[in-house]
Write a structure and sequence with these properties.
It contains 18 helices and 20 strands. It is an alpha/beta fold. It has three domains: 217 residues, P-loop containing nucleotide triphosphate hydrolases (Rossmann fold); 121 residues, Rossmann fold, CATH 3.40.50; 133 residues, Nitrogenase molybdenum iron protein domain (Rossmann fold, 3-Layer(aba) Sandwich), CATH 3.40.50.1980. Strands 15, 16, 17, 18, 19 and 20 form a six-stranded mixed beta sheet that branches. Strands 2-1-4-5 form a four-stranded antiparallel beta sheet, with helices on one face. A four-stranded parallel beta sheet has the order 3-8-7-6, with helices on both faces. The longest helix has 22 residues. The radius of gyration is 25 Å and the shape is globular. It starts with 12 loop residues before the first strand and ends in a 7-residue tail after the last helix.
Amino acid sequence: MAEATRVHGPRGFRLEGVAATYDTSGAEALCGVSLTIEPGEFVAVVGPNGAGKSTLLQLLAGLVEPSRGTVTLDGVALRDHRRRDLARRIAWLPQRLEPAFDITVADLVALGRTAHRSLWGGDDDADRRAIDGALAATDTTEFRGRLVQELSGGERQRVALAMSLAQAPEVLISLASGDFPMTLENRRGALASLVRTLAVALALLLPVPAVLADRAPIAPASSAAGVLGATTYPLSLVDDDGRAVTIAKEPRRIVSAAPSTTEIVFAVGLGDRVVGVTDFCDYPEAAQSVPKIGGFKPNLEAIIGAQPDVVLAVRGFPAEIIANLEVMKIPVVILNPVDFTGVLANVERVGDIGNAHDAATTLVTSLRRRWDAVEAKAKGAAGRPRVLFEIDASYPGSIMAAGPGTFIDAMLKAVGADNAVAPVAGGMQYPSVSDEAVLGLAPEMVILGDAPYGQSVEALAARPGWDVVPAVRDGRVVTLSQREVDVTSRPGPRIVDGLEAVAQVVRPELFGPSDTSR
């Protein structure tokens, strides 16, 4: 192979008229794609499943060949670069890290230095500095002696990033999905401090809805705040309903139309800008004195009267109100996370909207560490109890329970428990489960999420046939306080409080008894 020569002309990636096919079917995954990625850019590739995002990133990494068109790096076709040179310049961050054999974190991260070593060479000082720096930047130094297989999913992904950063690449291409544990700010910060020669792009794959898709230059390592910098307005984003929204200027007046969004806004330090909330926005205490816009059916006139620069709402916010507000040039952003990572993404998004990046990043880092700490501690627990989390028992003969795909379900998994209703949920998040089905499921613990609304341990034990349910028989029926119900059900910053409450209930031997007075 002829040696690829660096050119003095255009730098970065160039795709011109590129097409690519799926290996299995031969159908085109990409057709007629032309793209330029300049040195120093941060690029997000956003689209629905099947849109060809992974194929595009594989083309950039040189993992697949285009069926038509050209892909060049610094003016030279990728196929003409030496493979060792590409291995030094381009790092590929997988979506999941699943080693086929036992390996310590330090040894795995050291593999990132492979392309920089001679065939028989060991680690030199440069290798050790790169490895130590990568571990420090991803907050994984404490794991260096542990087996990768012992880590949680979030911890493994941080280790995978450390391995990529140890490579000291010019390009980092990430297939990490929305459950990636580091924030965009943290990831850019790690890149800015470790990859000082970052010359081309960070390609970040996010599922719709995306947090952002920008082309912001990566700042010098000496400028931590400049990695993301102040929000540039007008700000364009895609919300959790897939709607393209443009915010013309930095919002000074915010209407928050849901308890969860209100909690986020106050948590990132924007509470003094809130000029309207719903009747249900009772936390923090300062939110209770903010003018109200109504309850389940917000009052359009009250919203308009608040003269907001932006309205933050959740899915189910009336479409007719959105339409009226859009006519008046008042943007509405729907925040509707489906998992914990989505909550973190929305904290960051509110930080972007309100130009409160530092506060949002600090909060996200704290929340992620607390969640990971619970998961790590729960790994030491024996057994996996079957837990039924009751939402509503107001209909005789059946109950509504938290099923798969809910925040409650994620919390149960995080503390090492099984959701007792999963086998009969039929894919529903909040299935109705008959008393007969409950007897067959034989939950070993029941958590009464409806206790603040009149349900009690005594009333549950009196239900026909429930006396033989293991949880009732063994006295493992637990009530939650109103606060605990709120923090386990609101997808806001206190969702980690909810996880910690569930951990205390399910694993008191590890986390201490539940304290409903918190």
